Amino acid sequence: MSSAEAPALVRTAPSPTTRRNVPSSRLLRSELRLLFGRRRNQALLVVLALLPVLIGIAVRVSNGPSEPGEGPPFLERVSGNGLFLAFTGLAAVVPFFLPLTVGVVSGDAVAGEAQTGTLRYLLTVPVSRTRLLLVKYGGLLAFVLTSALLVAAVGLVVGWVLFPTGDVTLLSGTTISALEAVWRAVLVALYVTVSLAGLAALGLAVSTFTEVPVAAMATTVVLAISSQIFGAIPQLDWLHPFLFTDQWLAFGDLLRDPVPTGAMVDGLVLQAAWITVALAVAWSRFTTRDITS
């Protein structure tokens, strides 16, 4: 090799810094394809979408409107205005079906790839583990948001088909237009997404501790159920403000005018605290973990 050729080779050789500059958008697109391309995750979305359909059909074929306090929140208002089916659907999926979906998807985020052996190859990509973990969490949030918006959208469509629609009378007695009611349904879906963000972070953290995805899924779902059980015990009222399931249903305040924000703000602050703690645990484990499979 001549001395004239050496500088050219030096200039074209990739530096460590250059090798690590893999766009996060590319990683996120890959993660989203993985999440939404799995048949199991698609089946979960179908089940979530079917729930407002079933609720709407049940109300439509029933003999009369439901009594206040029976069934999911806002159920007694569905027959009078179909737009309430969106809110009823979201209220129905939040306690169990949506946490189950989040638990399955988040518990599989790292453990599933570790079990199949793809995690080891994924870590050969020139990107830091911290960024990879954040991309995975971003994918989980996108999936949760899609799930919530899907339930709201299906509820709006089915409610429009099966029941009369029009101006909506809020819980406070104020009447708003149908378009504003649709916008409030979107806001409810966004609040539900943030409310489940803490559970998604917990599931991701649990997923970094095992190579058995079923164990991570089950642990995450049990955490969600246990938290709701503790939240229903009056003797543990001192613990309720610290449970990540607290204020999950505070989105009902969005159906009032003016909107009282106290409970929802408390819920957002609570989720921010749980997300911070859970992601810190996940980062500590994932960045120091010896990946052998």
TrEMBL record:
The chain crosses the membrane at residues 43-62, 82-105, 139-163, 183-205, 212-233, 263-283. It comes from the Bacteria. Residues 1-24 are annotated as: Disordered. Pfam families: ABC2_membrane_2 (PF12679). The keyword Transmembrane applies. GO terms for cellular component: plasma membrane. The keyword Cell wall biogenesis/degradation does not apply. Keywords: Membrane, Transmembrane, Transmembrane helix. One of its GO terms (molecular function) is ABC-type transporter activity. Residues 14-23 have a biased composition (Polar residues). This is Efflux ABC transporter, permease protein. It comes from uncultured Frankineae bacterium.
